[in-house]
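Q: For a teaching session next week I want to show students how multiple molecules come together into a single three-dimensional assembly. I've collected the sequence lines for a complex. Could you give me the predicted structure tokens for the whole thing so I can convert them for display?
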Amino acid sequence: MGPYRLQRFPSAAPGIALLARLGAIVLALLISALVLALTGAKPGALALQVVTASFGSQFGLEDLGLLVTPLIFTGLSVALALKIGAWNIGAEGQFYAGAFAASAVGLFLPVAEPLSLFLMLLAGLVGGALWILIPTLARAYAEVNELITTLLMNFVAVLGVYYVSTGPWRAKGANSTTARIPAEIPEFFGSLHWGLPAAVLLALLLALALARSRFGYEVRLAGSNPQAALYAGLPARRRLIAVMLAAGALAGLGGMVEVAGTVHRLQGGLSNSYGYLGIMVAVLARGSLVGVVFSAALMAFILNAGIILQTQGLTTSTVLAVTGLILFLTAIGDELAHYRLVRDARA
Amino acid sequence: MPESPDAMMSPIPRFMPLPGTPPLVEMKGIAKYFPGVVANEDVDLTVMPGEIHALLGENGAGKSTLMNILTGIYQPDKGEMLIDGYAKSLASPLQAIAAGIGMVHQHFKLVQAFTVAENIHLGWAETPIGASAPVLEARTEVLARRFNLETRPSARVSELSTGEQQRVEILKVLARKARILILDEPTAVLTPAEARALFAALRAFVAEGHAVIFISHKLEEVLEISDRITVLRGGRKVATQDAADCTVKGLARMMVGRDIVLADMRARPQGAGPLAAMPVLALDKASTDGSGGAVALKDVTLAVRPGEILGIAGVAGNGQRELSQVLTGMRPLSGGQLLIDGQAVAKADARAFAKAGIGHIPEDRLKSGLAPALSVAANAVLREYDKPPVSARGMFSPRAALALARSIAEAAAVAIPDFAMPVRNLSGGNQQRLVARREMRIASRLLVAAYPSRGLDVGAINTMLRYIVELRDAGAAIILISEELEELLNLSDRIAVLHEGEVMGVLDNDHIDIERIGLMMGGQRQADIKAAV
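A: Of course. Below is the structure for the complete assembly, covering every listed component.
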């Protein structure tokens, strides 16, 4: 046995944890590059193209920003629910429900633009919250697993939006979208609108609110150990309901921002699986609401890279494979970060 | 003719190893370091075939670390291990099991939803592939008979009493051909009769040339069961002695490095007023439904007055958990009344009870008294997070929380390197002290203490009992739930005996007859005993 050996420590040092994460991402990209090279592509050239296309032009940065925005909302939605120990697999459905409600207001309520935007925002919040209401009550009062109920609600929302956008709400001359919604979130950088700064600010405010409020303490306690919440006599059920509804509202807000800022129409396929990717964003952020911003940015870069690769004749499955690989290697990296090399005193 | 306890202990002949037989286990110069902590240093331990070897030490003395090394969970930083005289390094628990070393942990590691037979066969190479439940149960039956450990193979573990669960754990280890059985505080959860049965089984086990390492805090019990005793203190070995040469006092001194007196603590301080007539809290024919097949409470009538310690005796699992939950507002009544200061309380509301000055040291601190993954600071403020200075107008102040956590840790005499670290990183004893101090701060009227000394060493038990006496002297009422009769007799003014959720009687603690308490713990009513005498 050598003079050094690995020892597992109960907690990972933050520096090592960060390093392990970066290492995992780099390794995932390297493996992807290797596989691409084996299929005959030129990974070096592709990588260069992805980087220049993403960061080398205003268009690239705009695209990236437009992808980050919904991911922050859905990531926050999942991460917030996790704070109280609930898995919100339904951010996708809540995103659609919020977009649907906001579109209804935007299309059919003829009021001035600022008021219309404000009402759309409220509609988005309420739509998302309503979409998680049944799973929330079922979990709070009958201990029905929210993982399954929130997931099932997704299909209803997705198909519902497909139906209205290809049926009753379809615009004249269009195949599968509604008419353009008159109210728009103002832009500040090309096509990039204020939804992005708002999302980042929201993440910071939520993190601050949870750390610095009595409500936040109760949420952390109830999420960490329901038995202790019972012991302390805090209103755990009320907190669960509030947090889950807020999580739904966040995803719904993401849907509103998407239609009012980016797409301007309600259509099927509005969400680029943002709701499901939000789960990954939240998991990568390791329960940190501020971390959601960064993991959303990473996820957006990967999505963007996928779009660029598609123009080079690669399938979208490549992107799925890369994201899966990153999540997988990150999980390994997180575990490895607990190990440190220690001098073997026996030698 | 009734059997006397002594007659049950001795008849098994002792195993005498042949001269020159190597020790079953020999640990030499073992050291183990954790960041900032010397868990073990220069520890020697020799266990001979046929021996019951007790390992004694305070919380944090290094017993667990040493046993984790022996069972392959940790690797030592220094020192060597010999099994049967051959040097061996145990890189994993599997290798330790292969070497014949098995451990029964204090907190059982059984799958609650599985049957006894399934638990026995879980993760065992000898489990027949594709075996049906009847086959596994038959195999378990055979094993149970061979090792003389009575179990119900088809019962789910969640339905078993703690004593039965422990037998399953031991059977699981013995089935894997363990020759060295390590038991971590095995009697903490047993009735006296169950403990006697366990001791008999251990004697039979070592009579075949095997060995037992017995970790315990109960000094009398250690003297009774073991052949030799090794005492650890601060991670180092203090001494190894023949049990025959030891006394309780001597062992206690070795453990803590000072003399300990466990004595009558009922004496009230000079000038303390007489007990008030009005009880702080009373139960009047209180009943409650149990959870998961547990014993419910039935027509319990009790009252406790300020400055009084009411002891609750009984074998664990006879409604103590439900009683403590009812008393602290965690569980609603299904019948009868609960009165605080003579006023009937309609709703069970733990927060309202805490606000009314009722503190609670729960029986399972890690499961219900703490949020293990949250920081020490977050856990320390659990009772006072919603009032100034920690919270004001809905805002939570981490700085005020830290200050409060510091003062609680200081009062508990627990050194905490980092208040942001998860509370589960603290030792069990330190967790208990923190919970006790946290609860004492709010227990101005009543403290419900369930098994406050469970899992603690002599020094920590004394500190804990001193806390309780301190609180009583300050005028609070105490309800002390315990399975240690000695502790109850030392502290309580009155003792109520619980059996299957019913109060068998309440005895004044003057010239109390232990035999009578024993009979009541076994289910006889006070009135019936009187009638028989």
